[in-house]
Specification:
Blueprint lengths: L7 H11 L2 H4 L11 H19 L15 E3 L2 E3 L2 H12 L18 H14 L1 H20 L5 H9 L4 E2 L18 E4 L5 E11 L9 E9 L9 E7 L1 E3 L5 E4 L2 E6 L10 E6 L6 E4 L6 H37 L1 E4 L1 H5 L7 E3 L4 H36 L3 H37 L10 H11 L6 H12 L6 H8 L2 H7 L6 H27 L2 H34 L6 H20 L4 H9 L4 H4 L8
Parallel strand pairs: 3-6, 4-6
Antiparallel strand pairs: 1-2, 4-5, 5-11, 5-12, 6-7, 7-12, 8-9, 10-11, 13-14
Helix pairs in contact: 1-10, 3-5, 5-6, 5-8, 5-10, 6-7, 6-8, 8-10, 8-11, 8-12, 10-11, 10-17, 10-18, 11-12, 11-13, 11-14, 11-17, 13-17, 15-16, 15-17, 16-17, 16-19, 17-18, 17-19
The structure holds flavin-adenine dinucleotide (FAD).
The site of flavin-adenine dinucleotide has 19 residues, from strand 5 and helix 13.
Length: about 625
């Protein structure tokens, strides 16, 4: 039976047939020792692990209990099933699949690590946030923590023996991190005393590991207000020495966990640092470099959150597809039209409107998966350019990642939500009930649009910073990379029309970017009101290009006589998926952009008191 959680065939198609990592990455440079067979083996094993071990722990509030992390007497308890799973996850080496062997990693390309994350996150995002944040924090320590404690820290974190978090948010400093109030005071021995309260800290406290390492943003006494005055510190829950032996508690106390809409298995904590004046932190990097350093982790996490959006979307689609094949309801429309007497009820997958929902779910979830994987492909290319000392290539791939990161985070999660919504709709009334997992997926998905910089903040980042980077060069490279595949697709009968739609949409996005940059000087509210919609239009066009790439490859394979029947069915699905996405989604970009450029400012003109009287 096909999986309800993971589309391994599509993942492998994207890796090996579309991004062609066997030719572009494996067997050379940093990945000289890796080949397609080894990657296939790892992917197969990971898929089995995800299906057999992670999926059964997915919070199901009717059939399995308990699913919530709980807080009592200052201590957090995770769901029972997570303890065994966390151990298995670490023993499987999944904490560091794509990290350097020098720190205990397996050294696979980032895109392989991302494919594994896609599978794991599809099965239980709340659980994955424990190892996920640990990995992000470990990467940060690897790059920025220069201290005799560093080696043991990396060993403990990359094996998962200790876990990690990221501590930015405070009650009055959410999107505006620069407003934080946590303080740091330098001690005579070079350490810092930390005082402050952080809220909403994912995996902030729990019973999966004996120690938790917190990268904490705080302001050193006397440093300037705003983001420029922020520093970052390594703050352990329990102090430790260079051998990794645990000492006394570090005065980090969990003041409670949030009762949330979704991701119930993950503890979202309020953490009080230095309530008793005994919390010690070790500086990471230089003083007042906290924001650029933390951005390193935030960018990794933003990619990760986009992947969360794509993963939940993938699982929601597969569940809805399975349901639509089984649910018998209503007569076939053609029999109805032909006035057949007593027409038989049919599986709902036969109804045109259900097919519309299914194909939208398929095309969007495959498209956002491709968007996420493409970004990791860019990271691998950037890494190879760094190692070979090719500055030009390094900057090219780096710029690609800069521009695409807000798209991955915002579009990946917003469209991921659309897919979850459609999955619930496909189930009808049953979709709204806890008996089926799609309502949980929809609730879990919502947070992905909020944390790691809300989607509104991502839109501002794209418009205000990313489009204009290097005088627009990075953005123009994003448009430029699409040209070759579009030109090729114009020569493929079945994709000719779609190639033109994508090309026109991308050109219109470039023109609108230029128009917006002028408007920012004359009528700034117009582009600012339109920023989120612009991000979506650019993504609709760029993902259209990714669909062109997938469908072109599928068209080649389908006409190859050596292709078997099952593969032909798969490739046919890819072509229809691309046609649907490009005609029904990318095809709407130009009128939407025209609309965005109108001097229409009602959102700003309406007086506050007129919103509701
Ligand atoms: C379950 C969960 C887990 C989390 N995990 C972590 C974690 O591990 N570590 C951590 O540090 N934080 C974490 N957070 C915090 C999260 O990153 C913040 O909630 C988020 O950044 C938004 O901040 P806020 O909630 O204060 O909302 P606000 O900043 O008050 O924003 C409210 C609304 O106003 C909009 N807005 C705010 N400012 C602007 C602006 N300048 N321009 C346009 N629109 C704006 C926002 O887009 C949003 O729609 C988590 C939150 C939750 C709910």
């Amino acid at each position: 039976m096909a999986s309800l959680w993971i589309d391994l065939r599509d993942i492998k198609f994207q890796l090996f047939e579309v991004f062609k990592i066997g030719e572009t990455l494996l067997g050379k440079g940093k990945y000289a020792d890796y080949d397609i067979d080894t990657c296939n083996m790892v992917l197969d094993q990971a898929a089995k692990f995800a299906e057999q071990e992670i999926a059964p722990t997915y919070p199901d509030e009717v059939h399995r209990k308990p699913v919530e992390a709980t807080w009592k007497d200052g201590k957090v308890t995770t769901p029972e099933a997570y303890k065994r799973l966390y151990k298995l996850y670490c023993e499987g080496g999944y904490m560091a699949t794509a990290d350097q062997p020098e720190v205990g990693g397996q050294g696979f390309p980032a895109i392989i690590g991302a494919a594994l994350a896609n599978m794991f996150l599809s099965c239980n995002q709340a659980f994955l946030m424990y190892p996920g944040l640990t990995h992000g924090a470990a990467r940060l320590m690897e790059d920025y923590f220069q201290n005799p404690l560093r080696n043991i820290l990396l060993e403990k974190m990359y094996t998962g023996e200790w876990s990690g978090t990221m501590c930015l948010t405070e009650p009055s400093a959410g999107s505006d991190v620069g407003a934080l109030k946590s303080t740091a005071k330098k001690n005579a021995d070079g350490t810092y005393s930390i005082v402050g309260t952080k809220c909403f800290i994912s995996s902030g406290d729990h019973d999966l590991t004996p120690n938790i390492i917190h990268p904490v943003l705080a302001r050193i006494e006397g440093d300037p207000q705003g983001t420029k005055g922020i520093s970052i510190f390594m703050v352990p829950k329990i102090r430790f020495n260079e051998k990794g032996e645990l000492g006394e508690p570090n005065d980090v106390q969990c003041g409670g966990i949030e009762s949330k809409m979704g991701i119930h298995g993950n503890a979202t904590c309020t953490l009080n640092f230095g309530t008793d004046g005994k919390c010690i932190g070790w500086l990471m990097g230089e003083e007042r470099q906290g924001m650029p350093i933390m951005f390193h982790m935030m960018n990794e996490e933003r990619q990760g959150v986009g992947m969360m959006g794509a993963s939940l979307a993938g699982a929601a689609y597969l569940h809805a597809l399975d349901y639509a094949k089984q649910r018998i309801q209503g007569a076939n429309i053609i029999e109805m039209a032909m006035k057949v007497e007593n027409p038989k009820a049919v599986p709902i997958i036969q109804h045109p409107d259900v097919r519309r929902m299914l194909l939208k779910m398929k095309s969007v979830s495959e498209g956002i998966r491709a968007l996420c994987l493409f970004c990791y492909f860019c990271m691998d290319n950037e890494m190879n350019a760094v190692l070979s000392g090719n500055e030009e290539q390094k900057e090219y791939w780096h710029g690609m990642i800069e521009v695409l990161t807000p798209l991955v985070k915002s579009y990946g999660t917003e469209m991921g939500m659309t897919v979850c919504d459609l999955a619930v709709q496909t189930y009808g009334g049953y979709g709204f009930c806890r008996e089926y997992p799609v309502e949980q997926m929809m609730r879990d998905q919502k947070i992905n649009m909020i944390y790691e910089g809300t989607n509104g903040i991502q839109a501002m980042d794209l418009l205000g910073r990313k489009l204009g980077m290097k005088k627009g060069l990075y953005f123009m490279n994003v448009i430029g990379i699409t040209q070759e595949a579009i030109a090729e697709a114009k020569g493929i009968d079945v994709l000719k029309a779609e190639a033109v739609i994508v090309e026109n949409a991308l050109n219109a996005c470039a023109e609108t970017a230029l128009a917006f940059s002028k408007m920012l000087r004359t009528v700034p509210f117009v582009p600012l009101i339109g920023a989120a919609d612009y991000l979506n239009c650019l993504s609709d066009a760029f993902v259209g290009w990714l669909h062109i790439r997938m469908a072109s490859e599928a068209a080649k394979k389908i006409s190859d006589p050596a292709t078997g029947e099952q593969d032909k069915a798969f490739y046919r699905g890819k072509i229809e998926s691309a046609k649907f996405f490009i005609n029904r989604i990318t095809g709407l970009v130009i009128p939407k952009l025209e609309n965005l450029k109108k001097d229409e400012q009602s959102a700003m003109n309406i007086p506050e008191e007129s919103f509701a009287v």
